[in-house]
Amino acid sequence: MGLLSDPNRRRALISLLTRLNAPICVVCYMAGVVWFMGLAFEPFTLRTYMSENAMGSTMVEERFPSGERALATGREFAAHKKKVGGMPVDWLVKTMQARGLEVFTQTFSRTLPFPDENKERYMVKGTNVYGILRAPRAPRTEALVLSAPCTQGDHNNQAVGLLLGLAQYFRNQIYWAKDIIFLINEHDLIGMQAWLEGYHHTNTTGMDWSPLQGRGGSIQAALSLELSSDVITSMDLVLEGLNGQLPNLDLANLFYAFCQKIGVLCTIQGKLQRNDWDSVSGYSHSVQTMMLMVMKQASGRPWGDHGLFLRYHIEAATIKGINSFRQYKTDTNTIGRLLEGMYRKLNNLLERLHQSYFFYLMPSLSHFVSIGYYMPAFGLLAVILLLRALDLWVQLASPPPGTEDGVVDTEQMWSPDVLSVLTPLVISHLTGVALYYLPIHFQKMALEHFPVSDTEAVVLTAIAVYTAGLALPHNTHRFVSGEGTEHGWRVLKLVAVLYLAVLLGCTALINFSLGFILALTLVPVAAFVTPHVPKVPSAFVLVILSPACTLLFSVFFFQELQEVPISFQDGWVLYLSVISQGILDHSLYGSLVYPLIALLVYPCWLLFWNILFWE
Amino acid sequence: MAAPLTLLLILAVTIRAALYRSSLADLIAERVEVVSPLTAWKRVVEGLALLDLGVSPYAGDVFHETPLIIYLFHFLVDYAEITFMLADVITAVALYLAVKDYNKQVFRKQKYALEAERYPLDCLELIRSPKEMYYIPLKVAMFYLLNPFTILSCVAKSTCGLNNAVIALFILTTIKGNVLLSAIFLSLATYQSIYPLTLCAPALLYLTQRQYIPVNFRRFSFWWFVAQYAFMYLGSLFVMICLSFFLLGSWDYLPSVYGFILSVPDLTPNIGLFWYFFAEMFEHFRLFFLCVFQINIFFYTIPLSIKLKEHPVFLIFMQLAVISIFKSYPTVGDIALYLAFLPVWSHLHRFLRNIFLVSCVLLACSALFPVLWHLWIYAGSANSNFYYAITLLFNVAQILLVSDYFYAFLRREHHLSYGLYLKRKDGSEATLVLK
Q: Where are the membrane-spanning stretches (chain B) (predicted)?
């Protein structure tokens, strides 16, 4: 408290902070970036370890024998799928019943707000088929889910085959203490959404689905299986779910532990882990892995069918079989044993997975960075905003040089300020609201007047509103309060800086990656913008660092990380489709990234744009 | 001045009416920051249903409001929205009138002091001008009505709004010098939530000051006045308690309302300090810490009354703040009431030290409450520690805010008697340090 109450020391501290404001900000920014890059350096990260006792100390034996039969079932499924031209519901019901499960179906339909060109769907109708294996050893109060999507074309037949094979094998074992639900969902996430909503009696997105006839207990954990070839070289783990939510780290640990035990190559983000962390290429490899995770998490979309489970407090992950050109192949028997082992351990759970971390980044499958390690990187960026705000506050509090005025004058100065701050705030938020609503609602009108497809109409409207927002707000305050004053823009900037700090802080707590990427681009803007910097170059920098351009760079960067670089032309097409996917994700699954950007981040950025053109 | 106030009232009512019609109302009514187990409208409705069925509303452990409230809503349940809007309007108008009257007195006192040349010469810039004071009552009403906390509380139909109205009427009648009404409203406020009991001290100080009775423990006139006030206060409290008994025909409500407030059995998270602490504590320490926590609220009354015996209205502000920080089930509505007084002390701004830090923290915490609640309850990825950390920070910020105002007030008084530019004994410039 000494610092807070002793006026001399306070004055010294504040004068130090205001005098060295710019250098401190630069140092903080550098330190934040360096800290973040350091997270991927192996000695700074922790090794993963199993925290959950119920899964750690017990031994299980895996004996799944019928891999070949599972593949045969998969081929049979493929044949029926081809014959029906979609999901072979009757065959699935019959096959599951033959394996001794309680089988139920659920139909659902959903009309998308506009046609999805990536997946070529608009009016979606489908059926989910699921079978419940009742637990013989315990009251049926808890359940586990194993799901496999039924996709069009030749994909994923082996996954369905393996799922049915496992169902048959599990049925003959007596140690199950939790119901196991085998789910085959159509139309990937839409079907999953319908099933989960039906299971939990909620309807958050206004989809039509028939109520579920059978239920198990409360779901403790879920795995989604994707497998498209008879043999595989490695298994890939996908964790990122809706809004950047991640499952408990113990689920990843469990997968890793069993891959080690059974001897299956395992990857995360499609990257094997390497042992040469001290070499440059080893370090850049783990940076690449971590950056891929950051980019995927920041996108806020579910990267596998498991992504929607997380919203219901269910730990879930997607496991993908990958077949590359490696010599060493793993057969279906081994994958079956892997899954059997994981389910037996999950079956041992006494309570929900909660021991391990929920907030983490993974530079490799065996190492992780927890929230305590990565938050300082964001904190160093956020502190810049606070320092700038402090600086502005001190400037505002000290009376302007030249006039020795008392209370009366500041009173007069404050009242027009409120208006001149309120107007840009209101206008930029209205622009944000327009950006949020217009693209979908003006789709029809755009279609009538321009020769574009539906998706293009939506995306181009969004871009048009975004660009129009740049032209609209600046100078409005002049109509309200005449000349903008020196005092006026400082107050506006103080408000904008604090607004951005709170906004980024909240975002980083929910979705660290998104918060960090936005902070990386918006904080410099917020720090340097004043009406007195040269207009044209600053405007250029401001546009380059705006949320839309950040997204454009992210698209290219993501492709670069995945080692499939693309030309500018393709990148632009991809960029448009990413925007449309963002809007679709919001209306289909309730992803928050699009409304966050449109309603809060973009208006906040417009405030800084406004300050630049303050006159 | 009536026209801007009317405009303000219309604006405030419009905002509330619009929010009642929107889908947000249900969402807000569920927020733990806005409603507590004591004040939740859902529970009032439950109590009403039980009453209609002929069961005691206190059967079960849902309803904890006082019998007068339930009988009020027995008649007004269809007009609940209007009642709550009216309560806010009454609070705002009462505060407006009270502050207007108080400012007049402050100004008169200042004039006498100036004429008697009691202020040092260099303190002229501390003297308050009528121009600056003119808009303060309006600002107070605006701070109350347009404060997002009040709006949320009103839209959630938290009965906290009614308590605030009672306290505001108490403040108004006290400042107007009406002893009887002041005692009645104070007892009504006490009846509602016990804690306003501590407002007794400022009320007595103010009323004695107004009637030129010196606060002297050896003087009979002082004790006679205290006895009169205590008689009126206890008498009306007695009437209310008996009335409640006759309305319900049982004493059920005493443990259910006052026992509930004092023994804090419901540990639903809120913005206060109790829930986490008592959820974590071993059972056999519970009684001891319960006493410590509850005495804490009443503890500050005596030292504050001694220090601020010349300034009872500031004491009321301090007491309200202490109550809303330390009470067992605080909601944002309680905070809104004492925040409404901040414009009255706008002349203290030059002496405030941490206002920037504190307002940043309060803003950030208000935004973080729903975020961390979401992460804890819905996403399941955070836990109660995250939420409590924010609660703690929020309360620390409030305490800093209040103590900052306290320091600034004392410092201004010090300057008014010793001059603005203090000199040390050796002639160099001195600074005041709070230790």
A: 82-99, 143-172, 229-251, 257-278, 285-302, 314-342, 354-379, 385-407
Look at residues A195, A220, A367 and name the one whose alpha carbon lies nearest to residue A293: A367
Say if CB A316 and CB A201 are below 8 A apart. no
- Pick from A18, A311, A394, A502 the residue to mutate for testing the B interface (most B CBs within 10 Å): A502
Cβ contact (<8 Å) for A5 and B434? yes
Tokens standing for residue A95: 């096959």
| pTM, 2 dp | 0.90
CB A583 within 8 A of CB A454: no
Size of interface A-B (CB pairs under 8 A): 64
Residues of chain B numbered 104-133 and touching chain A (CB < 8 Å):
125, 129, 131-132
- pLDDT on residue B124: 77
Closest residue in chain A to residue B346, using alpha carbons only: A407
Q: What is the pLDDT of residues A342-362, one digit of tens each?
A: 999 999 888 888 888 899 999
Work out the mean pLDDT of chain B and round it to a whole number: 90
CA A324 – CA A330 distance, rounded (Å)? 11
Distance (Å, rounded) from C-alpha A158 to C-alpha A142? 28
| Tokens representing residue A614 in the block | 């303050």
Supply the ipTM of this predicted assembly: 0.87
pLDDT digits (tens, 9 = 90+) for A503-558: 999 999 999 999 999 999 999 999 888 888 888 899 899 999 999 999 999 999 99
Q: Does A408 touch chain B (CB under 8 A)?
A: yes
Tell whether B432 lies on the interface with A, counting CB pairs under 8 A. yes
Q: How far is B350 from chain A (nearest CA, A)?
A: 9
Chain B environment of A502 (Cβ under 8 Å): 363-364, 367
- Tokens standing for A561? 């990380």
Alpha-carbon radius of gyration of chain B: 23
CA distance B369 to B394: 10
Question: Do the chains contact at A5 and B435, CB–CB below 8 Å?
Answer: yes
Whether residue A510 and residue B374 make contact (CB cut-off 8 A), yes or no, is: yes
What distance in Å separates the CA atoms of residue B324 and residue B347, rounded to the nearest whole number?
A: 24
Residues paired with residue A289 on neighbouring β-strands, in sequence order: none
B contacts of A390 (beta carbons < 8 Å): 356
Apex A374 CA angle, B270 and A364, nearest 5: 125
Alpha helices in A138-182 (DSSP H): 157-171
pLDDT of residue A408: 38
**CA-to-CA separations, B430 to A192, A578, B422, B427, in angstroms, rounded:** 72, 64, 5, 8
A407 at interface of B, judged by CB pairs closer than 8 A: yes
Min distance B27 CA to chain A CA atoms (Å): 14
Q: How many Å apart are CA B52 and CA B41, to the nearest integer?
A: 16
Q: Write the residue in A8, A245, A407 that is nearest to B381 by C-beta.
A: A245
pLDDT attached to residue A205: 80
- The domain limits of chain B are 1-349
Domain with CATH 3.40.630.10 in chain A: 53-365
| Enclosing H/E stretch for B304 | helix B301-307
Say if residues A514 and A298 touch (Cβ distance below 8 Å).
yes
- DSSP code, position B374: I
Residue A404 has pLDDT above 60, yes or no: no
A186 forms beta bridges with A150
Chain B nearest-CA distance from A8, in A, is 8
**Percentage of chain A exceeding pLDDT 90:** 43
Specify the higher pLDDT residue, A366 or A442. Answer: A366
Q: Measured between beta carbons, which residues in chain B are less than 8 angstroms from residue A506?
A: 367-368, 371
Tell me which of 3.40.630.10, 3.40.50.10740, 3.20.20.70, 3.60.20.30 is the CATH number of domain A53-365. 3.40.630.10
For residue B424, the model assigns a pLDDT of 65
pLDDT band at B181 (very low <50, low <70, confident <90, very high): very high
Helix intervals (H) in A172-279: 188-200, 249-262
